[in-house]
Amino acid sequence: MKHNYVEMIRDANVYDVARKTPLDFANLLSQRLNNQIWLKREDMQSVFSYKIRGAYNLMSSLTAVELAAGVVAASAGNHAQGVALSAKKLRTKAIIVMPKTTPSIKIDAVFRLGGEVVLHGNSYDDASEYAKSLAIERTLTYVPPYDHPLVIAGQGTVGLEILEQANSEIDAIFVPVGGGGLVSGIGAYIKEVSPTIKLIGVEPAEAASMTAALDSGQRVLLNEIGIFADGAAVRQVGKENFLLAQRYVDEMLTVTIDEICAAVKDIFEDTRSIAEPAGALSLAGVKQYISRHQVKEKNFVSILSGANVNFDRLRHIAELAELGEEREVLIGATIPEKPGSFRDFCHALGPRLITEFNYRKSNAVNASVFAGVKIKDRESERSSLINNLTNKGYDPIDMTDDEVAKMHLRFMVGGPSSEDIKNERLLRFEFPERAGALMLFLSNLGSRWNISLFHYRNHGAAYGRVLMGIELAERDVPEFEEEVGKLNMPYKDETDNPAYKLFLR
Q1: In terms of pTM, does the model score above 0.90?
Q2: Catalytic residue among 49, 60, 184, 305
């Protein structure tokens, strides 16, 4: 069935619970990037996300019988709050199934709005399957987060407002993409009313389901996704959303976690508000687009889609923001173990701010150094810095893009292993973070092998991260790999990692 989305969006029933959010000019960003950038402030909704629009537009269309029976929904957080608030307004009950990895700020918000929360699975897809089974079992109406014409029309009111509020001709609108509800709704309105405006979708690189779908010409089910930007972590986009995206989306961009963190910082500096990772996706896309195409004096709109982020997660975001802005380089090097060598090495780094400096005496001859160096332009200064150190007799390695160096070694530099440690292998694990996750990991691993190194770090991140050294003879490798496979946790052998070889081996 073909829908007249322009009329549906104009008639959408959203303003009983939603507000027309401002289109704010981002002054600092605009000056720095030499383009005019506006932020559509959906973080200023009562539930701090645009999701209230689609949820209420659908739920307000339900019959009295359907409302009396109640509704059920699956959500990583923002849709959950939209459904819970809509249920409160419409005087019906709402059961919300949420992944166990959902930030507590989103779970608590649903409770405060009167929703019943059921935690199930480690991803949105796990929660969605369970919610659909509850709908059948308890005769509830399932309220999808994106794949429904009324939800799409509700989200499309964001695009309607942008055209009403813009006082300049818009060149492009950048939209965060998860399941596709927002980008398809905005596209269905914008492209019919003002077709010259470019519509650019932005996804996290670790959950790029729409990019994969558009590239292949059909919906794709991703095997694995990352959940750092949990509000956009979807393994497969919606059917109707995909069809609309095929028709209306001009380009898709994917951004890294570092780029997302940098965009969170940018938004804070311009607005003093704190976006959640998914909420900063589109601005990360704007910055990437400007850098890639070297455009100037264009008018870009970025959807600031949400601000439901746990406070303690900000530590993790802040740590990666400088790398995302490409203003920091991480360097490893070996320096002579003698008086004055530290001073000489700092001098070799040039007149730059050292953000981090770690080393430990490796032996009587050399010391291993870990340095974080602040720069203005990574493109030109990065290679210049490495070359300068090489020319002065050091043997530096660039660790700026090394995940082990960024997430672990910078916090645990301690020198190589002692001579009595044999056959050490280094493994990096990731698992969805929740209460008891670390103990579950250790219990499942068992005590068959001797652990020679162990580093666990999690400051509000979506994943718990473990770096582990284990003594493992070659004959035991098959048995070990079989046991580790039973953990059902992604892991990578980092034994040949250059940062590991320099500091710990």
Answers
A1: no
A2: 305
Q: Which of 142, 177, 205 is the C-terminal boundary of a domain? A: 142
Q: Give the residue numbers spanning the domain of 487.
A: 424-503
Apex 227 CA angle, 250 and 82, nearest 5: 75
Q: Does 418 participate in catalysis according to the annotation? A: no
Q: Is residue 412, in this structure, part of any structural domain at all?
A: no
Catalytic residue among 40, 49, 51, 209: 51
What are 217-256's pLDDT values in tens digits? 999 999 888 888 888 888 899 999 999 999 999 999 999 9
For residue 255, being part of any structural domain is answered with: yes
191 is catalytic: no
DSSP reduced 3-state for 203 = strand
Last residue of a domain, one of 323, 356, 383: 323
Residue with tokens 């303003």: 15
DSSP states along 124-189: HHHHHHHHHHHHHHHT-EE--SSSSHHHHHHHHHHHHHHHHH-SS---EEEEE-SSSHHHHHHHHH
Do 181 and 117 sit in the same domain of this protein?
no
Q: Distance of CA 398 to CAs 161, 314, 324, 328, Å? A: 46, 26, 16, 11
Q: Is 416 inside any structural domain?
A: no
pLDDT in tens, 266-319: 999 999 999 999 999 999 999 999 999 999 999 999 999 999 887 878 877 877
CA 448 – CA 483 distance, rounded (Å):
10
How many domains does the chain contain in total?
Answer: 4
User: Is 409 contained in some domain?
Assistant: no
The verdict on 288 and 176 lying in the same domain is yes
**Whole-angstrom distance, CA of residue 33 vs CA of residue 291:** 9
